[in-house]
Design brief:
Layout lengths: L3 E2 L23 E6 H5 L2 H13 L3 E6 L1 H9 L5 E4 L2 H9 L7 E12 L7 H10 L4 E3 L5 H16 L5 E3 L2 E3 L5 E3 L4 H11 L2 E5 H7 L6 E3 L7 E8 L6 H11 L1 H8 L1 E2 L2 E2 L6
Parallel strand pairs: 1-9, 2-3, 2-4, 6-9, 6-10
Antiparallel strand pairs: 4-12, 5-10, 5-11, 5-12, 7-8, 13-14
Helix pairs in contact: 5-6
Length: about 270
């Protein structure tokens, strides 16, 4: 049994403007964000509204949370939208941001070609015991971090054997695929191979009508998925603060009213 790993080039894909590493920005605000925020469709809506309100342009790059935080460390972005609280706390402790602003949340869900039952832990345990095909993002993203937290819990409480290597913490087996790609790519591969994958709710909703996988939701506390905004300490871009104010005001209503196929994709804090 061995871990199947798909090696891919890391692509920085700006969906507004033309931001890439090593390239000087021609606009005043550079945002690093997660692929799940992009793939859900919400980010385009927020940016378009903000640009109209402030008559400015935002350039952004969508990568996994780990890669996005690294862009903050190197000063390649002015602010971040990420969803991995522990990594965000470390980023702040290192002095790269003063605080994190949780501004929206949803939940992690499973997309599966077959019915699943029980808690999220029960399902993951069954995936291992029955060697069901599983697609892992394997990209140090917030979703990947959540998957690893579930495996860690199962290792500690149910004696599920795991290993830790360059692909993170995971079980072993020919049924487990670590692909090193974003949420949309993971969902597409899971659909093509009839595998199970962990997804954020927003992206799952966006893909739901294009795939043959069913969506399963859980009540376990671990599936909570908060999104936070962090202003990088070294930036002097005032518009980064304007965007934060927007997320707490006009953007808050936009997020609360954003639906995909009639279902709420994100929720805002009271």
């Amino acid at each position: 049994m061995h871990l199947r790993v798909f090696l891919v080039s890391l692509l920085f894909i700006p969906l507004s403007g033309c931001l890439s590493l090593g390239e000087e920005s021609t606009t005043s605000f550079r945002l690093g964000t997660t692929t799940s925020m992009r793939d859900s469709g919400l980010l385009d809506v927020l940016i378009e509204e903000f640009e109209d309100l402030h008559q400015t342009d935002i350039e952004y790059v969508a990568v996994g949370t780990g890669a996005a935080l690294q862009l903050g460390r190197t000063g390649d972005v002015d602010a971040l939208i990420v969803h991995a609280p522990e990594q965000e706390a470390m980023f702040i402790e290192e002095g790269f941001a003063e605080e994190r602003l949780p501004f929206a949340y949803n939940a992690f869900v499973l997309l599966s070609p077959i019915a699943v039952n029980g808690s999220i832990y029960d399902v993951f345990e069954t995936i291992v015991s029955e060697e069901r095909c599983f697609i892992s993002r394997g990209d140090d993203s917030g979703t990947h971090a959540k998957e690893q937290a579930i495996w860690q819990h199962l290792n500690e409480t149910r004696n599920i054997e795991t290993v830790e290597d360059s692909n993170g913490l995971h079980p072993t087996g020919d049924w487990y695929y670590s692909i090193g790609q974003g949420m949309g790519a993971a969902i597409n591969m899971a659909d093509e191979k009839s595998c199970i994958t962990l997804s954020d709710r927003g992206t799952a909703l966006q893909f739901q009508q294009q795939i043959d996988l069913d969506r399963y939701e859980f009540d376990d506390a671990i599936v909570s998925n908060p999104y936070s905004y962090l202003i990088v300490s070294q930036t002097n871009i005032s518009i980064a603060h304007d965007f934060q104010a927007y997320l707490l005001n006009e953007g808050r209503n936009t997020i609360a009213n954003y639906t995909i196929n009639g279902e709420a994709a994100f929720f805002v804090y009271d």
